[in-house]
Amino acid sequence: MIDPALFQENERTAPTTDERKFVDVGSLDCECGKTIESVTIAYETWGQLNEDRSNAILVCHALSGDAHAIGWWDRLIGPGKAIDTDLYFVIGSNVIGGCQGSTGPASLAPDGKPYGSRFPMVTVGDMVEAQSRLLDHLGIEQLLCVAGGSMGGMQGLEWTSRFPHRVRKAFITASCARHSPMQIAINEVGRQAIMRDPNYNGGDYYDGETPSHGLSVARMVEHISFLSGEAFESKFSRRLQDKETFDMHFGIEFEVESYLSYQGDKFTKRFDANSLMYLTRAIDYYDWPGVSGVQAEFLFTSFVSDWLYTPAQSKELFELASGAGLTATYVNIDLPYGHDAFLLDAQFQAPLVREFLSG
Q1: Which of 84, 96, 217, 236 maximizes the CB count within 10 A of its CB?
Q2: What digits encode the pLDDT tens for the residues 183-210?
Q3: Where do the domains of the chain lie?
């Protein structure tokens, strides 16, 4: 049985209320050599810090996520859940380069105009540096845990190596130390779809029509990679869309075509094409520096049906950590959902995370 929520990505992840807070963390010298003069971080928090401020958990989002972690990871985060907001102080923040409140390509530069193509090429390291300043603002010296999947997992890895003294535990799911050529290739198809949209204008489109057609196609490609063949077969098979025979044209014939078109077009209403360009490039560049100096305890999970971030990549992370003498656990979970399983699974991940945090 395939979880119906797997096919409700836009509806499932969209915040129903806006509880964001914003903080200016100052100028940021990016790893590319350029400087963002003023960086704003959008964030949300749930729960309360305990007296010695030792119960903070930072949740890092995936590519198209945002600060509203209790929404897009609702099966793991909340009162009484594995990441229990009655016990822990949970922080979600939007990454720099994003488009959900933190400084990104659509933000206004010092001259009052959107950055557009002038926005620096940011890295996962830059994202984590900005997050560290958010923690400084919140008065948190050390995290009980940093948690994230996919791109969020990369941020978690970077936290353990960049700020080893600030991270006690790291829950890394459906992620990797570095992208494979196939993962880079999938991201490049999406970027090319955007760049070849006539409205892209080199990234400077904010005073006119946006490259919504290219962004829609890019999201369709991503969405295919997020799911498994079994999930597509179970949901759609080869059923036709509102008809019993082919119309013999290039319009919508199959249900799966209609679904992809819907998901792609709806995504353009909540995401900026430049942010997709910058964030996919950042994760393609990422290469975890490894376990030297790392002090954290790790929980790694992966999913048998995830062909985008494969179990072998998570196993590699586990072997690196355990081989260096760090405390690490790895569990490969057999669910048919594909990469998005990390967002939906509570059956297996919840008890693992609960025990991991309480240990």
Answers
A1: 96
A2: 999 999 999 999 999 999 999 999 999 9
A3: 4-179+287-358, 183-279
